[in-house]
């Protein structure tokens, strides 16, 4: 199995930027599609960004398109989420997710909190 640990969250002002990291261990990252999800208080968890493979396709939720960028470095077993032009509504716990191609088994990190506020 794969273990996922997120880092990089914190408090940032509106219009600012953060880069989240997801460190994976215990497996080969190329066997997985990688995603970032987020969950705001009182809201359901939602997918915000997907990277199917290293150098492969990416997609984003409409709410973050043009502001967020997902990338992955499979050699380092790390996935990133670059977040620019942050808005208060981006405040949420952000989770790293891995989906194994051979059987669609999903794995989750424990999350990192991003707070966008003045």
Which ranges are low-confidence, i.e. pLDDT below 50, for 5 or more consecutive residues?
A: none
How are helices and strands ordered from N to C?
EEEEEEEEEEE
Main sheet record = 7 strands, mixed
Overall average residue pLDDT: 96
**Percent range of helical residues:** under 10%
Which assembly state applies to the chains in this document?
A: single chain
Question: Number of helical runs?
Answer: 0
Calculate Rg over CA atoms: 14 Å
Give the CA-based shape: globular
Q: Kindly report how far apart the N and C termini lie.
A: 40 Å
Number of strands: 11
Strand pairing plus helix content: what structural class?
mainly beta
Please report which band the strand proportion falls in: under 5%, 5-15%, 15-25%, 25-35%, 35-45% or over 45%.
over 45%
């Amino acid at each position: 199995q794969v273990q996922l640990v997120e880092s990089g969250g914190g408090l940032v002002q509106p219009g600012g930027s953060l880069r989240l990291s997801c460190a994976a261990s215990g497996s080969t990252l190329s066997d997985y599609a990688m995603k970032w999800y987020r969950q705001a208080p009182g809201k359901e968890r939602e997918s915000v960004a997907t990277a199917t493979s290293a150098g492969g396709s990416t997609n984003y939720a409409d709410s973050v398109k043009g502001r967020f960028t997902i990338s992955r470095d499979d050699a380092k077993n790390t996935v990133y989420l670059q977040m620019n032009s942050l808005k208060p509504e981006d405040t949420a716990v952000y989770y790293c997710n891995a989906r194994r191609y051979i059987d669609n088994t999903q794995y989750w990190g424990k999350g990192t909190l991003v707070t966008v506020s003045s």
